[in-house]
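Example 5.3 — Tyrosine-type recombinase/integrase
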Amino acid sequence: MKRWLPQWVSEYRDRHGKPRYRFRRKGYAQYLFKASPGTEGFRQEYQACLEGVAAEPIVAGADRAKPGSFNDLIGRYYRSPDFLDPSERTREVYRGVLERWRAKYGEGMVRDLRTPHVEKMIAEMLPHRTAANMLRKRLNGLMKFAIRQGWTETNPVVATRPYKVESDGFHTWTEDEIALFEARHVVGTKARLGFDLMLWTGQRGGDARLMGPQHVRNKRLVVTQEKTGATVSLPVLAPLAESILAARPGALVFLLSEHGKPFSRKGFGNKFRQWCDEANLPHCSAHGLRKAAARRFAEAGCSNQQIKAWTGHTTDSEVARYTAAADQKLLSDVAADMLMANLRERLANEPANSLKVNS
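Solution (predicted structure tokens):
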């Protein structure tokens, strides 16, 4: 029985006779899928093709890009694993940064780029230091790709330095702010459900908006993160279960827009911004709830490994950023209790020890 395939996707056999799949649409470059139909990976690749990211629009004269220019290099970079392997959302960000830079410098020759040029390009982004650092990262990746292609032998970006950014990023919600939101948006409302889906799972808004009954297995919520591809299996905590049941969730996703459809990424962000403003919390955001969830775990004495099991982070440094707002007084009390308990245990096991421990 022939497998059903979405529009513009066709099956072919490779030289080993194994079935492969490709996206072929008039006016767009061909794209060969890495994942198999029916999988989440395939869905993401297909969506990237529809959006013109994986399968780029064919622009008249694009094949006449000056050989050795950045226009030429970036076109090749967009078809490389360096660009295609990250998530759809990450590719959108990378492409946006590069295209803005390309509009001004695309005609330049790769071999002519020097460190002073890069420093000048980055400085043009000021006073937006975060944007300047993002451009630096993207140019660094682009030049690494150029070296592998044999277009240059050195990476002039390496000698530059990123700008120091004082901001801690998104504001981490405090317990008082959480209480204010809960008081304004009670259990049973869409606002509260969106809030609870993030606070009680520690996931990003982009993942929370797509959570649905199909993700619940044996009283656990199994989510594959859109940004990283990491899969987390989380127990459904009582406050979240109450919120889901009270809000009369949709059949495919828990949270539906006013039009009865899942929120788009941008649409959910805008809606949550509105909900925060209604609760008089203009400085709070959806991503700040993810940080608040990590803070709560840290204040409960959870280890970095335990926190990573919830948030999906892979490094301790990432967790440290998210838990920086953990209550210092509470954590010092927890640390003191752990210290004294350890000393009491040592004293009990070593009767002759002269160490005196105050209760």
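Remark. The two ends are 74 Å apart (CA to CA).
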